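Known limitations

Files may contain more than one protein. Parsers should not assume a single record per file. Below, a two-record file is shown to illustrate correct handling: read the sequence, read the token line, then continue until end of file.
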Amino acid sequence: MKQVFIVPALFMTLTMFVSALDPLIEGVERGRFTQDYDSAVQYAAEYSMPIFLDFTGSDWCPYCRYMVQNVFSRDDWSEYAAENLVLVTIDFPRDETIVPEEYRERNRRLRDSFNIQGVPMYVLLDSNGSRELGRLGYEEGATPSSFITKVNDSLRFSIAYLEAFSSYLTGAMQEQFDMVVAEIRESFSESAPAEQNESRHRWQINQAFDHYMIRTMSEDERAEFQMAQVAYREAARGINELIAQAQEGGEGNSEALRDYFTRLDEASETILRLRSKHLP
């Protein structure tokens, strides 16, 4: 007899848990995902908050569910997101009724616009809703803390962070940095900033970040950081060369490609760890 009562109770608990994680259909609520992209963009502009787009397949994608279970359902994430992000779900479920009919075509347009090739994919946008700050994907062993660290690294390219970071620089570096930030601010109303400008800005911003970090690092950390930068560039160059060879009809080398990606990931983790420690 006990089992007769336990099973419904468990079912109710799981149903309540899933329901609490269901995205809003309309409007915006801090710390909670919404399917209402247009309202989210308006909210982000009004409150100067970055946007977190979750491209997902909520009822079929195991990696998406993993991230929900291990990151997005946790209080640490909800509290962080409520203060720092506007959360939007762009869903492509097998059960189409999960997404309101009026959102389905818009979701497809967003998928094509951002060139999303697979899910999950998390795209971070600045508060103007068009300037891309970074992309993240599924992370094996992810926790709220590890994922938030990566989100924060992308948010360092937001206009709000850049304007605040300027005060940590001095002299010619600060003057050059302020010019870059002014250019970004001028183009902030553009629906699609020029790609070449974004690439140049990103390089100049990273130069300023590195300049500040190196001043605050120990000698051992500086050596580790510089070695990681070299390893990253070499791995990226190796990946690009192998991809170019394959595109030209050359013989692929999957083992070498995996090795380059492993080295790229290791170098990225080192750079991220040191950035998180030394950037304000």
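...continuing to the second record:
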Amino acid sequence: MLIGDYTWGAFSDVDYDHKALFDALQVRKAMWTAVLSGGHFNYMDDSLDFRATPTPDKRAALHRRIAIRRNRFESAGGRAVNIGGSTGLEYFRPPLPAGGERWEAKEIEVAGNTFIGGGAAVAFVGVDGAAARFNTIYRPKRWALRILQENRASGFVPSRRGEFTDNLIAFHSSEWAEGGVNIGPDTAPETFQFARNWWFCLDQQARSRPKLPVGETDGAYGKDPLFQDAASGDLRLRPDSPARQVGAAALPRAHIVPVRGIGEE
């Protein structure tokens, strides 16, 4: 899948072969909203801006072996990146097999992105393994992430095995709900992993610690990450920042996802 120099685009019910990975240099300056219902083997890298307030059917709905990296989302609706979620059974590609475990999203990576505003940066919806890492999340309006289950058809596993690691989250206490994580019914939040995230409450540093469903490994709380000029949208970190090991800029340029099917030739 090649996406480059688009002002807006919409992709629905797609099924691309994973060989069609594209050079990151070809997708700079893209501004688009992707709808990937049941899509497989997709790769979105180095688009500069997603500036939209999408309706529920115009979110980035991600399903399998998909990487979305190094993009910028500004006020991108209730869920900037919706991993899985409310897919009609007839839209899965390939069609769902009879029997066995089913899921709405699997082997997904959301990495190196910048999120400004919006209801939540990432929603794990009916997932069976997905990762959000090395993202910068600035002033979400309610949560940093959500763990949800929307498809309750027979055989679908509860949303499980998500990873939220190495992210930089800066929020305002007046815009922070439920400790930053929204957990819906019929999910398995106890299977999620949280590690090395940097949490900072902009107006009340003492309230920086989130309310997570499980313990976090090596998290940082209440330490100013020292943005260059966040008020003007410049979320780069100053040279003396103590948080340079986390967030969007910390994702290695040579990063390869340790998920089968993404980044393989």
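Parsers that stop after the first record will miss the second one. For reference, the second record is described as follows. DSSP finds no helices and 21 strands in the chain.
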